Amino acid sequence: MHFRFFVLTLCPSIHNLYIRILNKNLHLLLTLLLVAVCGSAFAQSYTITFSSIANGVYPITSTTKATTICTEESTTFLTAQPFANIVKSYYGGPTVQDSTSIRIGKSNAAGAITINLSDSGKVYATSIVVNAQRYKADKAVTLSVNGKAAQDIQAEAADYTFDLNGKLLDSLTFNSSTYVYVNSITVNYETTETPDFVIDENANSVKDTTGVANVV
């Protein structure tokens, strides 16, 4: 006769004890797993996107507010007036492309801009991913971020990754060789802050309640 069937049918109290021991062992294993996870690095990211209601094209200045040209969610990561070191940079315009991007540079003229990050945006960044495209499809342009090697930007919107060293990032500096659209900026970073986990003994599982952290 199978041992567990014997215990279940002939001695229910022993069976209940058997189940409790199994659950306790599971709880111990899950706890040990969480201890290991606590010492790991978690890859996270945030994205800055743009949105403007300006029908005309306006120069970005040091007094331009983040709320004027960025989405509400993005302003969390920026100072109130985040723009500095500005050379030929613009926002606004009649098209959807114009209203959902910033432009750096002008025809046959280089451009530059620095975007200062708020405390929420200052992280130990591993890379910056910029979605960008040419202003004119047949006009070659290069773009660099935070002093990293310039990359050739293509006619269609695409992501360009600039690897960083994991040091604290407090600003984003862009330099373009001529006119370029910057559609969005994603900052990838690592943190050792442990996400919130819940041990569900009944479901025999561990749940990450933050929904944002991934073990790397």
List the helices and strands and how they pair.
Blueprint: H1 3-10, H2 12-38, E1 42-49, E2 58-59, H3 66-69, H4 72-75, E3 78-87, E4 89-91, H5 96-99, E5 102-104, E6 111-117, E7 123-134, E8 141-145, E9 151-153, E10 158-163, E11 168-169, E12 171-176, E13 180-191, E14 197-200, E15 205-208, E16 214-215
Antiparallel strand pairs: 1-13, 1-16, 2-4, 3-6, 4-5, 5-13, 6-12, 7-10, 7-11, 7-13, 8-9, 8-12, 14-15
Brief characterization of the structure:
The chain has 216 residues and is α+β, with helices and mostly antiparallel strands.
Could you characterize the architecture of this molecule?
The chain is of the alpha+beta class. It folds into two domains: 3-41 and 192-215, no CATH class; 43-191, Jelly Rolls (Sandwich), CATH 2.60.120. It contains five helices and 16 strands. It has helices at 3-10, 12-38, 66-69, 72-75, 96-99, and strands at 42-49, 58-59, 78-87, 89-91, 102-104, 111-117, 123-134, 141-145, 151-153, 158-163, 168-169, 171-176, 180-191, 197-200, 205-208, 214-215. Strands 1, 2, 4, 5, 7, 10, 11, 13 and 16 form a nine-stranded antiparallel sheet that branches. α1 packs across α2. The longest helix has 27 residues, at 12-38. The two termini are 46 Å apart. Mean pLDDT is 83; it is low at 209-216.
